[in-house]
Amino acid sequence: MKYSMLSAVAVLAATSLGFPEFYWGSRSSPNHVYITNNMNRAVQLDKVTGKSLADGIKVSRDQETVIPAHQTRQIQAFDQSADLKLRVEGAGHNQIEVSYTSGDSGTYNYAIKPIEGGGFPGAVFVNPDPPTCPSQRWFPRQPETRQVTCRDRTQLRVYLQEAHHPAFEAEYDDEYDGWL
Q: At 104, which CATH number?
């Protein structure tokens, strides 16, 4: 009896630590992600859900989609976590990802992450809709963005654009408002 009680406690503790979304009931997500490809070439999307094989849980590819140049695709995002892996068509490997995972108390977290060996040639902008949490932007050769927390069902709008780094903001005298 003593061992069966210890076993039950161990299973409960392992479940709550390994899968907090099941124990605490938190399964927040964006519901939908809209990806607009404003680049002059098609982009391949691989939606990957689940945890890594290192955690002993199978990784599943839910969706593989080609997003043609200058078009938008809606992706269902009801999963507790997913990596939306992107690459320009013709690239041999995924290059960048927008990842989200369920958080605490009706929230989820998202970030933009370059994939090792990536080389994604475009810029990535993520705008939550409605704008109740911060937007993110990423340019080539930058590290991953910080993680942002959004309320459950705040949709994400992802824009892929040809990479143009932000313009240098020159400082000049406020009294002189023009350039020669």
A: 2.60.110.10
Q: Could you report the per-residue pLDDT of 52-99, keeping only the tens digit for each? A: 445 555 455 666 899 999 999 999 998 889 999 999 999 989 999 999
Is residue 50 situated within a structural domain?
Answer: yes
Distance, CA of 25 to CA of 21 (rounded, Å): 5
**Measured distance CA(49)–CA(77) in Å, rounded:** 10
Strand duo 71-77 + 31-37: pairing: antiparallel
Percent of the chain whose pLDDT exceeds 90? 56
Q: Furthest-apart CA pair in the chain: how many Å?
A: 89
pLDDT, tens only, 27-60 = 789 999 999 999 999 999 999 987 544 555 545 5
Side-chain half-sphere CA neighbours of 59 within 13 A? 11
pTM: 0.73
Structural domain span for residue 59: 27-162
Three-state secondary structure call for residue 64: strand
Size of the chain in residues: 180
Contacts of 53 (CB under 8 A, 6+ apart): 59
E-strand ranges in 89-121 read 96-102, 107-114
